[in-house]
Design goal:
With 313 residues, the chain is mainly alpha-helical. It contains 13 helices and no strands. Helix 1 packs antiparallel against helix 13, helix 5 runs parallel beside helix 13 and helix 6 packs across helix 8.
Length: 313
């Protein structure tokens, strides 16, 4: 296990290095000029040149990249072109909202997905199974921005049960929980559908195994057979989907944060892209990539606890 963690850590560093290079180059080679955005329509050619020199954009791109890597090694991700705020401070300020949204969405997805998957497997080809399949298809197909808008229209505008958006209240308060409900459902629906389908497939395969028939023949209660014997052995592919989706949720909150006016990392990234704010875009992308790899490492470690037969030697 220690060897696995060391190998994955090395892979993490190499992956982040490659991602940083691709993002850095793509941002600098894409059309548009940060100096033009900062200077505005009234800026003269000399003004734009002075802005580029002040930001260090007049140097060769590779030189800028090497300097950027040197800053990262010292924990310096640069400063925003727009606000002159430290990128690290900007991310730290907004990341809690994104983490709360992604975690709440994952909780919704896991609860709905696993319960729907188990019921669908136990009632194969029944109306429950058909409903679960329809839900999965709809969950994957419906765009987040449309679903979020419809939920706001129904539950916030018409019924006035829940707030329209924002995460201004602490999560442990009633108001904070209310603010999370609609965005969590919006973001977690697609993941719930994928988890439900994977859980159903895994459960259908497991409940046909010999040890499940043996447990039933010995008189083990149905609940114990499902929740203790079958579900644990069916969780390996489900945990994989959960891990991948959680990493994806952290990077996929962009649209949901826009719809619900949540001041998170996704919204920070969108604003930075629009303003050609290179340091902020690079910092947010590296954060999402690092979290995605770390989550997958955690998933691999969880495998060994779910099924001790798995070896990483």
């Amino acid at each position: 296990m220690i060897g696995l963690i060391v190998r994955r850590f090395i892979q993490l560093l190499l992956l982040l290095l490659g991602i940083s290079f691709l993002v850095f180059m793509s941002m600098h080679l894409a059309p548009g000029d940060p100096a033009t955005v900062i200077g505005g329509p009234t800026a003269t050619a000399s003004d734009l040149e002075a802005i580029r020199k002040d930001l260090g954009l007049d140097r060769p791109v590779l030189v800028q990249y090497v300097d950027y890597l040197g800053g990262i090694l010292h924990g310096d991700f640069g400063y925003s072109f727009q606000t002159n705020q430290s990128v690290s401070d900007a991310i730290i300020t907004r990341f809690p909202n994104t983490l709360k949204l992604a975690t709440a969405s994952m909780v919704v997805a896991v609860i709905i997905g696993i319960i729907a998957g188990i019921l669908s497997a136990m009632k194969q080809n029944s109306w429950i199974d058909i409903s679960s399949t329809t839900f999965a298809l709809a969950g994957v197909s419906i765009p987040n921005f449309w679903l979020g808008t419809m939920l706001i229209l129904i539950f916030a505008v018409n019924l006035q049960w829940l707030p329209v958006g924002g995460l201004s209240s602490p999560i442990y308060t009633i108001e904070g929980m209310k603010q999370l409900i609609l965005p969590a459902i919006t973001l977690g629906t697609a993941s719930a559908a994928l988890i439900a389908r994977m859980c159903r497939s895994a459960m259908l395969e497991v409940i046909k195994s010999d040890y499940i028939r043996t447990a039933r023949a010995k008189g083990v209660k149905q609940k114990s057979v499902i929740w203790i014997h079958a579900l644990r052995n069916a969780m390996i592919p489900v945990v994989t989907v959960i891990g991948i989706n959680f990493g994806g949720l952290l990077g996929g909150t962009i649209i949901t944060e826009q719809v619900f006016a949540i001041n998170g990392v996704g919204r920070l990234m969108i604003d930075a892209i629009a303003a050609r704010d290179f340091p902020v875009v690079q910092g947010t992308v590296l954060l999402v990539a690092a979290i995605f790899v770390i989550v997958n490492l955690i998933v691999d470690i969880i495998y060994a606890f779910i099924d001790p037969r798995i070896s990483y030697d």
